[in-house]
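Appendix C. Worked example: RNA polymerase-associated protein RapA
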Amino acid sequence: MQFILGQRWVSHTESKLGLGIISEVNGRRITVSFPAVGEERTYAADNAPLSRLIYNEGEQITTLDDLKYHVTSAEEVDGIYIYHCEDEEGNGATIEELDLSCFVQLTAPQHRLFSGHFDKNKAFTLRIETLNHIHRLQQSSVKGLLGARTNHLPHQVYIANEVAQRFAPRVLLADEVGLGKTIEAGMILHYQIHTGRAKRALIVVPDSLIHQWLVEMLRRFNLAFSIFDQSRYDALTQSNNDEGDEFAVEADTQSNPFETEQLVLCSLDFLTENPAAKTHAVEASWDLLTVDEAHHLHWSETEASIEYQCVEQLASNSAGLLLLTATPEQVGIESHFARLRLLDPSRFYDLERFKQEEAGYQPLNLLVQQLVELQSSGAPISPELLKQLGEFTDVSDAQDIEGIIARLLDQHGTGRVLFRNTRAAIKGFPQRKLSSYPLPVPALYQNHTTGITGLYPEVITEADEWIQSDPRVSWLEAKLKQLKSEKVLVICANASTAVALEQYLQLRAGIRSAAFYEGLSIIERDRASAYFAETEGGAQTLICSEIGSEGRNFQFAHHLVLFDLPLNPDLLEQRIGRLDRIGQTETIQIHVPYLEATSQESLFRWYHEGINLFEQSCSVGYSIYEQFELELLEQLQVNDGQINALIADTAAHTEKMRQLLHEGRDQLLELNSCKLPQAEAIISTIEEEEDSPLLEEFMMRLFNQFGVDQEHHSDHAHVIRPSDHMFTSHFPGLKDDGNTITFSREKALSREDMEFLSWEHPMVVESMEMVQTAELGNATVATISVKGLQPGTLLLETYYTVNCIAPKQLQVDRFLPITPIRVMSDVNGRDLGQVLPHERLNGMCEKVKRNTAQAIVKQVRHDIEKMLTHATTVAEQALPDILNKANEKMMRSLKVEVDRLEALQAINPAIRDEEISFFKQQISASADAINRSTVQLQAIRVVVTN
Ligand SMILES: Nc1ncnc2c1ncn2[C@@H]1O[C@H](COP(=O)(O)OP(=O)(O)OP(=O)(O)O)[C@@H](O)[C@H]1O
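Step 2, the predicted output written as structure tokens:
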């Protein structure tokens, strides 16, 4: 293929892009702009899924100004076509291909039919089957939720379904540690990208989690993110500079490395340490920004951390935002409020007001509970309750209890933006068992037994010395030897402690170990944790500094040693969460060695007896800590054994807080974070779709049709390979050396090497698009024998789809699916749709030799043209009804957003009018696009009786 600027090409894989223009040819890469949808694509020149659009004599073309002409002749000048044309009045015109409309009809079955390019009947039926599947899937209630290589867990599926359907969702995913926030974010990303709601996504995570995120997104959701780090950024900026020396400076400022990829993964440190990269990342603007471990974003009324400021800038230039943290209040209510403000500045605009609201959740919860009960009993709301509710929200429709609950949660709780599931609500998690080991203080530490120093005395001591005399070291060595066949995760607060410990265990005690700390590069850290994960010959223990306490998956281990304790309950929860997470199969053994009669013992007792934090997770650990911080620090400092009173106070306060939370905020959150019956209904629909044999059968037919070789592997699993009789040079996702695929999620969960093919796997999606967009099966001829019909009777079966070309961000297909319209008639325009349904006709059709078929078509061309005109009229008659329904659906969906913002604006003047008018514009732009839709002929089958 030779690409020249200004040529017009059509995408095989993305039919909705319209007619593209080659806008850049750069060595082995070409860029095509698609003005109809305002998008651009860059392809490798030798493998671009594109077809050149060239018109022949007699064909109709449409110009940019929507003028129509017939081509009288065409010539190619320097690789660009020039069409000599006439309009209906016979006026001549010369039109360059650059002036062609971007909204052209791209497939022309009738052209192929009349020029003798037929397909076999099988290809025709495959085409119709494909159209029907696309239509069915566009309307599926579980669209976007299929195809994740995960177990179906109700709390995750519920959140994904709830959040992903929103336009540009902005939420805080705050499930307790290890309940699968990464998976929830992946499900939301998959949904948004699959449905076209998002195209550009940026994920920002701590350095140590880059690899884990990369793997989870690819392995579970087929989302291939590109890692951006300093070296990649430098290479991209450098290559910009190298492109044409004289423009070097200009190129550097003009082209943005973050715009070279759609799905980008990078670390927060990389952005905060490199202002130029941060500016580029912000300017690149994203449809969906995801920030993991968002508790690092500190903010107070007087000071915002550099991390907060960075995410604030990114968030203000991103349509959607997912913030993830298991410990939303880790650094206090101010930061929690500030993160909510990032999500919805109009809803969270005043800290004081937010604090008051938090305090008032109890009465609100009582009201919501009453409504929930009424909802299940079916009883109406009493006038008295209605009056109370009226003080909180609009209750004009007292029948709509669900609507009232939703409004209460939206307008008064953090419900709409904050999702938090707890172990208590989910159940099925293993137990945590604590073992503590009081040890004598060595002489070396005699002067370091109190305060913070007493917690980490080794830090101020030479490694050689403390390793020798700290009894925790010999205890650890003995414990590891005792647990010889078990994996043991060890966490300590400081990197220097981790390094010294690991060296000792490895070199002196002969224990297979690895260290994981901030001084290692990302690759070294990944290598260390992979070594720990290996079942045979891997490390028995991984010694982590505090960075290992975040985000990582170590649930294959069942023993956790807390070599010291952090001075923050949320950090302690994070540490335990490495093992206490989905996938943990056994009771978690938590081992805590401490030095007797030192601040270590006091802190251990305070956590254990005051908050019971080792054996039970506690969502308000940090606020309890804040409450007792000064007293606790004092006790640690004096360390005179008088901590009992503080422990008793803490325990009483913890109990009260747990109770309050249970009655107030947590219940509201839980109510909002997982509605079990809905989640179960969604899961059962997903599983019905997965259990159906339709996909496997369909894909097998598709592989056959395209010449992809298949070999049975095992139940619902196959090996597919390119063959030397391939129908196209490019079959989506097919590797040169083949792929092992399975249609069973169960199998895919246990077999990493297999690709899990679902209706939403890129191979399936793109090959269906390829069928829809390309010509395959769009024209065929067949014969049938029907009693009562004269031999030689001509019948025509046509399929039309509704063609709506609109910018992708409007996502019009959620309201207006392609809607195949079948018209089956004879020469007299008699409707035979009922008498000869498609499936029945398929069974009756017999092959016709190509020569015979060409002769038939030539002979009856005039009749076919007449029948086609009639069929188009019939299809067009069906259109207004379809468009009306689409408009109604669109109005219903977008109007809810307008109403919600208007209701919020009534109590919150910070909501800007522009926010409301944004949705109003969406309504009018969508209506315009819907009303401009036309019917598009997709396939013709000429049938002759014999
Ligand atoms: N639905 C699922 N099916 C299979 N595995 C899952 C599922 N959900 C989560 N997991 C696994 O459970 C572990 C915890 O999930 P994830 O990392 O998403 O939790 P998290 O809430 O982000 O944790 P943290 O709070 O530590 O950041 C991971 O190993 C993940 O792969």
